[in-house]
Amino acid sequence: MGLDVLRILTWVAPTVVALVAGFLLRRSLHWIALGAVLLFAALNAAAGIYVLNHFSDPRWSPEGMASLSAPSLSETPLVGDYLEPLDTALEGVVGGVNDFRAFQQALPVTLDFLATSGWALLVSVPVAIVAAFVSFNNARRRKAEFRKYLATVDSLKDELEQIKRQIGAGYPTTAPSGAHVVAGVGPDPAEIPIRLF
User: Fold this and answer.
1) Is residue 39 a contact partner of residue 64, using CB atoms and an 8 Å limit?
2) Rounded to whole angstroms, how far apart are CA atoms 46 and 58?
3) Which helix (H) or strand (E) holds 13?
4) pLDDT of 147 over the 70 cut
5) Torsion over CA of 157, 158, 160 and 166, rounded to 10 degrees?
């Protein structure tokens, strides 16, 4: 995975997650936006750490920058056998220089990813405030709707109790003469005039 692909991936992954989550959870768009920003920040931080851990990888180096190689002193005529220990030391020095140059090339890439992650975290603060405000308003609205529902239920209960009292006050407990009585039921409902008021 090249550097350009890594940069594109840090943008594409949060966008895809936000779109899928937004399609599935439409009522929580404010939290989805916050999650997408935090995911973007986390992916950029992870990419920066990955680049720093693999700083010797040539993917972070500019095109055409070749590694240094140490000359072989052991092939020197007459004294080459005596210079073999210097070959090992020289290879170690050149390897250290190559690592330092690779680190120099990878460090700006790492800092770029980490700076992007920091900006994303900075943006997440107002997004989190907006998300909390929207969530608080939604909770308050649901609570008001629930109170309204409870008030409607209480009002209907009161009306039902009034109707029961009016029906109970207008009729004696014993069946009137000539009424058709069904065992266990009472007077025939069709023969009872209903008086609501």
Assistant:
1) no
2) 19
3) helix 3-24
4) yes
5) 160
Q: Give whole-number Cα distances, 12 to 9, 44, 110, 111, 148, in Å.
A: 5, 12, 19, 20, 44
Which of 55-75 are b and which e, b meaning 16 or more Cβ less than 10 Å from the residue's Cβ?
bbeeebbeeeeeeeebeebee
CB 120 within 8 A of CB 40: yes
Q: What digits encode the pLDDT tens for the residues 21-52?
A: 888 887 788 888 999 999 999 999 999 898 88
Q: Which of 84-93, 120-129, 173-182, 183-192 has the highest mean pLDDT?
A: 120-129
Instruction: Tell me if the pTM is above 0.70.
Output: no
Q: How far apart are CA 96 and CA 68, in angstroms?
A: 10
CA distances from 171 to 83, 125, 188, 190 (A): 125, 69, 13, 14
Mean pLDDT of 59-66: 64
pLDDT category of residue 129 using cuts at 50, 70 and 90? very high
Output the CA angle 30-34-38, nearest 5 degrees: 170
Spatial distance between the Cα atoms of 167 and 196, rounded to a whole number of angstroms: 8
- List helix spans (H) across 25-170: 29-53, 84-170
Q: Is residue 187 classed as helix, strand or coil in its secondary structure?
A: strand
